[in-house]
Here is the input.
Amino acid sequence: MRITVFRESASVGRFMTRRDVVKGPGERLNIWIVHPTAGGPSIGRHWRPYWLADAWNRMGHDTTVICSNFHHLMQQPQRSPGLHRIEDVDFWFVPTARYNGNGPGRFISMLSFRLGLAHEFKKLLILKPPDIIIASVPHFFHVQLLKRLARRRRIPFWVEVRDLWPLSLTTVGNLKSWNPLVKLISIQEKRAYSSADLLISLLANAEQHMVERGLQPGRFVWIPNGVSSSEMSSALNGMILDHPIIRHILDTKATGKKIVLYAGAMGEPNALDVLIDAASILSTSAPDIHFILVGRGESRKRLMSKAASHANVEFFDEVSRPVAQSALSAIDCAVVTFHKSYLYDHGISPNKLFDYCLCAPRAVIACDQSSLSGLESLALNRCEPNNSVALARCIEVALSEPARSAIERCNAVMEFSYTNLATRYLESGISSRLPVHPCANENERKRETTLLRNFPRSV
Here is the structure.
């Protein structure tokens, strides 16, 4: 069997343990993170699998991110199947059907990922035999396949849940509970929860919801999104990249404008209508405030049409993560909005919230207080959701307050560094027979702490 490895570079309870082979102290773990829409350098959004893999690799383990070779968040049209080395992290791209939009083609692509993954198992098991399998679920169709493999190999099987499905479809997507798709995903959800040796949730308040649907008590752990050590270092250094959107921001600020930025997806769940309504209010009461929205999504064209008469609102295409973070450091305030919904009572963990806190001098979030459980330190300015008047006022208040310094922002996100999150991940589910390499991890923690301690307090 011929296996080709592509090397790439980019500028930018009770848990099962393996009984047939027990790792000794100091030996590394082979970890699979299976996330159909994973991103990373030169790949696209959803960097969490990449950053976890990078942190575990620096602890001495060997991590492989397994994802589709095509999905709607990719920067490139399609990846060649097989093993790729991307910025010191191994990615295995599974051949998957292409699709456009959110129609039947995307559903077929989800199913084809499961079929493609099963086809790739033989090569994966030869080259990357796992000691732990983590099924991350933007959808559930690959979960039972991975569970059976983990049981057959007698290794831990963990499930990571980013969003609550099908609850997201019935609350934000407005599908009816009797919809066949909702029924199918509900069955998949319950099977995933009941089969997990450990359930990692990005949502702090979701445990009861999951236990009611089959999760064994004691198997829930909350591990939100975060930021990487390299991103913290860049934020401290204050480097601003040379890019058209950043030059535009700086030129606009030079005219006396205060820039408020939204960077992220533009879909119905992002509540950007409320932001545009707030911009309309401020166009007369605070004409020096200028809004820039960066990203793509199914609502973008409609939002652009709605904002066409507002001279204080501009739209830009999606940019890479490093450019977005550099743009955040050049603006005056960042903003993120949510709808008022029972769904968010279970918690939120948007990547942009962590990026905003780390990179932007000020940040505003529109959501209920309960949604921020565990993340209160990241958002100093909050207003109620679905209220454009309250959002406009909150933005004005934030812009009147002193900017947070780089050292203050890094201290706020330190507990959410991926070095710490990756350690919590392993410590939550692995017995002492499967080591976490504490010495290697302690060195990483010391490096982050030293970085902050040695940095000038005035920055």
